Amino acid sequence: MIFRWKNPEECYEKGLLTGDDTGGLDLRFGNAEAMVTLLEQIARREGFGDFVAEGCKRMSEKIGQGSEAFAVHTKGQEVPMHDPRARGTELSMNYVMSPTGADHVHTSLWSIFKNCATMCVMPWYEDDKLRAVVDGVTGWGMTVAELEKVGERALDMARVFNAREGLTAKDDQTAPRFLTGFSFGPREGQRLDPDQLKELKQKYYEQMGWDPVQGVPTPARLEALGIGWVADALR
């Protein structure tokens, strides 16, 4: 949520938005009263809050003037409070490759299975214990590997859905903000390496058995997962 504010705030401070645009709200950093007012406007879709409620991607598309650099999102989903510059490449790849955009719990096929099972990732069940819970509820007798395969199929299906809706490999990218270094503090200057991200993205495609250029599951891959019918969405 913290990054969501950076788009209107920085646009205001850099003169891309004025008081005429914000309905008189002074959105400079540190004006807590204005932020609370804006939050209430967002909730009610009133005034300038109606515009901000559309999210930073749509805001920057309308504002233009280079404001895309302030829009901290992936695939239109605002980044949560975790900054990948401080957390390493694993978190950055979670944001880049998640089918739903910036998602800090999109960490593995097993965590995707947990989402399918409507389980929070916070209770740290060991794999076999979670398997026993699922078996106790369903009686399916599935192995840990079979449950992980559920996450694998879910990810590939989501990837195909995104491709059908127009998302491409170009959407698998980090926010421009993370390619710039921290401006202060003990991690000053630390940033993500775009070349490393590009290399990791290609490795991810390869490991998943996806098309190396388009980043989309191949028909053969979908057949191997037992969901060959999903390929019809790509035709």
Structural features, described:
With 235 residues, this protein is mainly alpha-helical. A hairpin with a 2-residue loop joins β1 (73-74) and β2. α8 crosses α10 (144-164). The protein has two domains: 1-71, Aldehyde Ferredoxin Oxidoreductase Protein, subunit A, domain 2, CATH 1.10.569.10; 88-235, Orthogonal Bundle (Aldehyde Ferredoxin Oxidoreductase Protein, subunit A, domain 3), CATH 1.10.599.10. Mean pLDDT is 91; it is low at 1-5. The chain has helices at residues 6-13, 19-22, 32-44, 47-52, 56-63, 84-87, 89-97, 109-116, 127-138, 144-164, 194-208, 219-224; strands at 73-74, 77-78. Strands 1-2 form a two-stranded antiparallel sheet.
Short description:
This protein is an all-alpha fold and 235 residues long. It has helices spanning 6-13, 19-22, 32-44, 47-52, 56-63, 84-87, 89-97, 109-116, 127-138, 144-164, 194-208, 219-224, and strands at residues 73-74, 77-78.
CATH superfamily of the largest domain, by name, is: Aldehyde Ferredoxin Oxidoreductase Protein, subunit A, domain 3
Strand content: under 5%
Count of alpha and pi helical runs: 12
Radius of gyration: 21 Å
Number of strands: 2
CATH topology of the largest domain: Aldehyde Ferredoxin Oxidoreductase Protein, subunit A, domain 3
**What is the end-to-end distance?**
37 Å
Shape: globular
* Count of spatially separate domains: 2
Structural class: mainly alpha
String of helices and strands: HHHHHEEHHHHHHH
The name of the CATH architecture of the largest domain is Orthogonal Bundle
CATH class of the largest domain equals: Mainly Alpha
Query: Unreliable segments (pLDDT under 50, ≥5 consecutive)?
Result: 1-5
Biggest sheet: strand arrangement:
1-2
The largest sheet, given as strand count, sense and whether it forms a barrel, is:
2 strands, antiparallel
Mean of the pLDDT scores?
A: 91
Q: Give helix % range.
A: 40-55%
